[in-house]
Amino acid sequence: MKKFVVILIAFVCVAFCAFCADADYKLVRIETQTNAVRVRLPLTDVTGKVRVKEKSSDGFGIPIAPSKVSLGEKDYLEWQVGYDIPSTNSPSVVPEIKFIRNGETKYGHELSKIIFEAVRIGILSTNDLIHEIDSLKKIPPSEFEESQAVQVEVSTNAAADGFQSAVQRLPQFTKSTLHGWVQIQLKQKQRAVGYQAMVYVCLPMAEVLAMDGSPRKPGSAKSKETVYYDFTRANSDLLLAIIHAFGIASQQHNEDIRQILGKILETN
Question: What is the pLDDT of residues 102-136, one digit of tens each?
Fold first, then answer.
């Protein structure tokens, strides 16, 4: 019986360690270096916030299985970046950035930490943040991307077996830089009626780094491979574009981002 208990405990420990390793792999981690804010992204967590896509002429990209194809210049990472979290239980949280939304306490997270550290090491200046806050204050409600119309085209001719076809056109907005681009996509709300604006950061595989900081070599992804992207002074325009994308995506995002930038200014 003792032997069985020992084996059972060992099995549970191994399973728990494997679970923790898998959970850590899926996390977006942010660390600060001398002249860069480095972001670690999971490359093969296809059901998570980071997906690999092949570039397409329509700008939406084609999802691909990163472990089954050779990843190169034609491919990019689509990262659904966030900026807040309801607790401090995350390695990418910034406890100094704390604000209230709809009666719930929020803490700065992911993008907030990138901006916070970027200002601290001089990638962005406090003037950059002041200028962005002033710019976002002036956006009228009618110009938020979430307010843009969704078009539905209904065919006048009945299709086979009496079915009628309809095509829904959802607008997408893209801001490109030399080092990547940011997109605002309108998608149906999961737990409410209407559409919401989602912000995605698109990072070319040619700009992605391996663990040692060198450019990632072309090739298929290894199991649980992580890659890295450095935000530096040279690509600060992409970081500013991400901030602005949230500011024009919706009224709520606009208010949140202005609060976050304001909190960062208070700490500097």
Answer: 899 999 999 999 999 999 999 999 999 999 999 99
Q: Coil, strand, or helix at residue 81?
A: coil
- Exposed, middle or buried: residue 171 (CB in 10 Å: 0-12, 13-18, 19+)? middle
| pLDDT mean across residues, the chain | 88
Strands (E), 1-92: 29-32, 37-42, 50-54, 62-63, 75-79, 84-85
Number of separate domains in the chain: 1
Using an 8 Å Cβ cutoff, are 84 and 109 in contact?
Answer: yes
Range of the domain at 260: 2-141+149-267
- The C-alpha atoms of residue 61 and residue 204 are separated, in whole angstroms, by 12
> Please, are residues 123 and 113 in contact by the beta-carbon 8 Å criterion?
no
With 80 as the cut, is the pLDDT of residue 208 above it?
yes
CA distance 233 to 209: 17
Ranges of beta strands (E only) in 56-163 are 62-63, 75-79, 84-85, 93-101, 104-109, 151-158
- Ranges of beta strands (E only) in 178-225 are 180-188, 195-204
pTM of the model: 0.86
* 247: enclosing H helix or E strand: helix 236-249
Cα(157)–Cα(164) distance, integer angstroms: 7
Residue 133 contacts residue 247 (beta carbons within 8 Å): no
